[in-house]
Amino acid sequence: MQDKLNLMIPGPTPVPENVLSSMSKHPIGHRSGDFQKIVQKTTEQLKWLHQTTADVLTITGSGTAAMEAGIINTLSKGDQVICGDNGKFGERWVKVARAYGLDVKVVKADWGTPLDPNQFKRILEEDTNEKIKAVILTHSETSTGVINDLKSINNEVKNHSKAITIADCVTSLGACNIPMDEWGIDVIASGSQKGYMIPPGLSFVAMSKRAWEANNQSNLPKFYLDLKQYLKTVNQNSNPFTPAINLYFALEASLTMMQKEGLNNIFARHARHQKATQEGIKAMGLNLFTKENFGSPAITAVKPENIDAESIRKAIKNDFDILLAGGQDHLKGKIFRIGHLGFVNNRDIISVISALESTLDKMGKLNVPTGQGIAKTISVLNNE
């Protein structure tokens, strides 16, 4: 059946009907008073979501643009930085940092394993000359389904008088608790097509006072991503360049929905769906790729034994119109990933676990009684 595809990937995520409807309005002038009202409202809503009084700036661009902006607006060529690398996106920040001439120390962990805060602690404590200027890491590493311990790593950074934390929270913001001010995080980057529940095209950078102090020393090249321009215009309820106006309509609608649900309810919903997915997978005899204590609230990675993961994805898409994410790089064909981020409800979780169980049964690869997986998922959903 056409037009029935259900996105169960880490992004883009499903978009609510009222958010889609808001985008169908005629564009308005981006220098108009009406648009300024939207910028003013969404700026306050973004501060609410980030749990901060700091500046949250909106860029027309992807989450990568937000992360690159955070890096180039706080650092200078030759600065020493630590990059956490335990997946595809950690690898990306190492490449970005080196592209700008930064001196990169890499803290690595195997894909599917979280970064060790003690490794960051050791390197930071050994830096007696305080040459390290930043720690750059991914909070929710969706290539593997791992959540890194941002709070503990950031605590180690705060013990260093010079370094700041630059955090990729693209698939964790709006899914789990990240109190920017309480934890003292300096830079948080995120993207619209994830927990924000709107299409791709907007990204967001939250900057602390320490980050702005670092900005005063930064000499890396920047123009479109020069955050000083965004800061100047956001204080005038505007934007330095032509923004994606209709995505602002969507942003206002989605953040209003999120405020109505409440942060704690949003976090609880994602935790419930994560657990229901994990427990259903285990009950049907499949293995989680990541240890449960370090699973991301955005996505669950599954490593089937003696089955090509891509054949499972293909069958579920063909038979049920549900799109799952595959493995990346050396994990292609070895894992598949189930997204439970953003505009996802209990029905979506039941549907994807049922489809997976039915697919394995049809392939002759279900090694437990039919219905055992979905029964466990329903039990979790009914009791959480």
Give an overview of the whole structure.
With 384 residues, this protein is of the alpha/beta class. It has 2 domains: 17-260, Aspartate Aminotransferase, domain 2, CATH 3.40.640.10; 263-383, Aspartate Aminotransferase, domain 1, CATH 3.90.1150.10. Helices cover 43% and strands 17% of the residues. α1 (17-23) packs antiparallel against α10.
Average pLDDT value? 96
Q: How many distinct helices?
A: 14
Question: Can you give the helix content as a percent range?
Answer: 40-55%
Number of structural units classed as domains: 2
Q: Tell me the number of strands.
A: 14
CATH architecture of the largest domain: 3-Layer(aba) Sandwich
Provide the structure class. Answer: alpha/beta
- Ranges with pLDDT <50 over ≥5 residues? none
- Largest sheet descriptor: 7 strands, mixed
What is the strand content?
15-25%
Assembly annotation: single chain
> What is the CA–CA distance across the termini?
34 Å
Q: Superfamily at the CATH H level of the largest domain?
A: Type I PLP-dependent aspartate aminotransferase-like (Major domain)
Enter the CATH topology name of the largest domain: Aspartate Aminotransferase, domain 2
> What is the string of helix and strand elements?
EHHEHEHEHEEEHEHEEHHHHEEHEEHH
